[in-house]
Write a structure and sequence with these properties.
The protein is α/β, with parallel strands linked by helices. Helix content is about 35%, strand content about 15%. It has 22 helices and 21 strands. The strands form five sheets. A seven-stranded mixed β-sheet has the order 10-9-11-12-14-13-19, with helices on both faces. Helix 6 links the parallel strand 2 and strand 3. Helix 4 crosses helix 10 and helix 5 packs across helix 14. The protein is elongated and about 95 Å long. The N and C termini lie far apart (about 85 Å).
């Protein structure tokens, strides 16, 4: 793309703005009390050519996924005032003081919010690109990273997935020769990081990262290629950061000769001299540009100083979206009923939602139309056959849990409603960063201006002799992560209604399915229905003891209640159905009526969901209790393989009965 003289001047102006912004910031940070600067400066001085060159001439409907030193790119889409206010921690900043500006997100300006985890945004970028492709848009995604990010597993998962699906994403490595304080040759066994593109069958290009026009030309070629549907490109920009990793006041530890050698290649000075030689820039114009920018930055600092800090209660806002409201007709059993299995109910929910809403997509291993196994569309019943009806929206993925979860978030940010399958809940650990730091925090990260309507389906639980890595009940791992919702149905009726509600919800939902229950049969209505999240169900009424049970343990509790009836004990069984948000009112009302509480779940007792329920009851209904609260769950051990060991390990009706009788004997 031919650049005019006005273009060349505008590029220079953006580079000067980025350089002087950093210099002002560092100057303020050295003042007493850091001059009001809250965010620790991580200087990009010496790297301005990359962000400016790469993003110049992007369209408004293209996206950038920034990294730690990508402020030059941000300043092309966000005012200096707003960024400075964010750095000062003020309410007028990008996310109302909730996050640092490094990680800001704003879909309207094509900025995808990231996290503080190095490389954690790469999978997110693939999801944004996937959404563009699925919607038939020719928008592209520029994903920036430092050289250190290329050592992360997410780097390889993202490149592999992007190459496999020919996604319109350009991965830009700002190789500044250091990952934090570790020299490049100490963390990379190869000289050129662009060579890694060969392993994924995509173009890998090396460019002088201190030459803004070379960067611009290289990125523009990759952009044109991506717009035409030819997939991703990996671009390595060789550069150097002239300042330390962060402005923390320690003596510089890098060799003085090294810094001085790179200072002679300063991209701003180099480009300024080029413009002088071309006669495009004059000393007078250069001086005017610098003075205008100095004034702009002084105004930005004044704006930041005068802006108010956020009110304390702002911390509680933007964690979740507004709960959905359904007409009463949608949540009641209406019309004739029929019997289906738990797995069939989930399959129906997915099929109906995909027919109702074209933005619903499915991501997961072995679920797509290219699967050659004996069961088409997945190893579990919920996804079977869906790829035949929706071949373009049921997307098979590599064995890459991090990219499955991260891509789902990226696609959701652009309006898709992804449902992902993590084949076994145990494997959620592989995607934990994408779930805990990305999915759960995006809404907060955006200051409430973004939603993440994704569902992560996770088959879990013991009872199938699959051993300790395929049988865990990990729901408690996620209970302490604000921003997530956790659902665990126990019947076909609940499974279908809750999954439909989860797909329509505006927040990320982890949907736990006890895999031994896929064949469990029960009745569901013929017509449409939805079960709102956050509403417990009393599965059996009683007067003497409350048994709060989840998942498979609901059925064990109901069997235990029948046995207890023979002991003249009337047990009320409450199924929370949704662990987050938790329907405390239904549980408390039951306990206040019965005066006794047993909590049963499949996971180990220590650190489990039951401890939270017990704490809530102890805090809010202690005066109603006639006996100590008792929890029934697995022992504190991994799930064993051999059937006799597994049978001993799992909680069941007999253990619930024994616990109940014990508290009655004690009182």
């Amino acid at each position: 793309m031919q650049l005019s003289e006005l273009d060349l001047i505008e590029i220079y102006r953006y580079m000067v703005l980025a350089r002087k912004f950093d210099e002002k910031l560092i100057e303020r940070y050295r003042m007493p009390d850091h001059g009001g600067v809250i965010e620790l400066p991580h200087s990009h001085i010496g790297q301005e050519a990359i962000g400016v060159g790469a993003c110049y001439k992007l369209r408004p409907d293209d996206y950038i996924v920034p990294s730690l030193r990508t402020r030059p790119a941000l300043l092309m889409r966000v005012s200096a005032k707003e960024l400075m206010a964010g750095i000062f921690g003020k309410s007028t900043g990008p996310a109302k003081g909730k996050v640092t500006t490094h990680h800001m997100g704003d879909n309207e300006r094509g900025i995808i919010g990231t996290t503080g985890v190095v490389g954690g945004h790469l999978c997110l970028a693939t999801g944004v690109a996937l959404a563009c492709k699925l919607r038939g848009r020719d928008s592209v995604v520029l994903c920036f990273m430092g050289d250190g990010a290329t050592q992360r597993g997410d780097f390889h998962e993202a490149l592999n997935f992007a190459a496999l699906k020919k996604l319109p994403v350009i991965f830009i490595i700002e190789n500044n020769m250091y990952a934090s304080w570790t020299p490049f040759h100490r963390h990379s066994p190869i000289e050129n990081l662009a060579d890694r593109a060969v392993g994924y069958g995509i173009d890998g290009i090396i460019v002088d990262g201190n030459d803004v026009l070379a960067v611009h030309e290289t990125v523009q070629k990759a952009v044109m290629k991506a717009r035409k549907g030819h997939g991703p490109t990996l671009i390595e920009c060789k550069t150097y950061r002239l300042r330390d990793h962060a402005e923390i006041g320690y003596p510089e530890r890098r060799p003085k000769e090294e810094i001085e050698a790179w200072a002679k290649k300063d991209p701003l000075i180099r480009y300024k001299n080029f413009l002088f030689e071309k006669g495009v820039l004059t000393p007078e114009l250069a001086e005017k540009i610098e003075k205008d920018i100095e004034r702009e930055l002084d105004e930005a600092i004044e704006f930041a100083e005068k802006s108010p800090f956020p009110e304390p209660d702002e911390v509680l806002k933007d964690v979740y979206g507004e709960p959905l409201k359904y007409p009463a007709l949608d949540v009641e059993r209406k019309g004739a009923e029929r019997e289906v299995s738990f797995g069939e109910a989930l399959n129906e929910a997915l099929r109906e939602e995909m027919r109702r809403d074209p933005s619903v997509i499915i991501l997961g291993e072995d679920v797509g139309p290219d699967t050659v196994g004996p069961i088409r569309g997945g190893i579990w019943p919920p996804t079977r056959g869906l790829c035949d009806e929706f071949p373009d929206r049921v997307i098979g993925t590599p064995i890459s849990e991090s990219v499955i979860a991260g891509a789902a978030v990226g696609a959701a940010l652009l309006g898709m409603r992804p449902v992902t399958e993590i084949m076994f809940a145990d494997f959620l650990t592989i995607a934990m960063d994408q779930i805990a730091n990305v999915a759960a925090k995006i809404r907060y990260n955006y200051g409430g201006k973004a939603s993440v309507p994704i569902v992560i389906r996770a088959p879990f639980g013991a009872g199938t002799s699959m051993g300790l890595h395929h049988s865990q009940s990990p729901e408690a791992w996620f209970l302490n992560i604000p921003g997530l919702k956790i659902v665990m149905p126990s019947t076909p009726y609940d499974a279908k209604g809750l999954l439909k509600a989860s797909i329509r919800d505006e927040d990320p939902v982890i949907f736990f399915e006890q895999k031994t229950m896929y064949g469990l049969r029960g009745k569901i209505p013929e017509g449409e229905y939805v079960i709102p999240l956050g509403e417990a169900a009393v599965k059996r009424k009683g007067s003497d003891v409350t048994i709060v049970a989840t998942g498979l343990m609901v059925h064990e509790a109901l069997r235990a209640a029948e046995i207890l009836e023979k002991h003249n004990i009337s047990a009320e069984v409450v199924d929370p159905r949704t662990l987050l948000p938790l329907d405390e009112d239904t549980i408390l009302a039951s306990v206040k009526k019965t005066g006794r509480l047993i909590i049963a779940h499949e996971a180990p007792v220590f650190g489990g969901f039951g401890g939270e329920v017990a704490a809530i009851v102890a805090e809010k209904a202690l005066g109603y209790l006639d006996a100590p609260i008792v929890r029934v769950g697995a022992p504190f051990a991994p799930v064993p393989f051999s059937p006799p060991l597994e049978q001993f390990y799992m909680p069941n009706k007999d253990k619930i009965v024994a616990a109940t009788l014990k508290i009655f004997e004690a009182t």
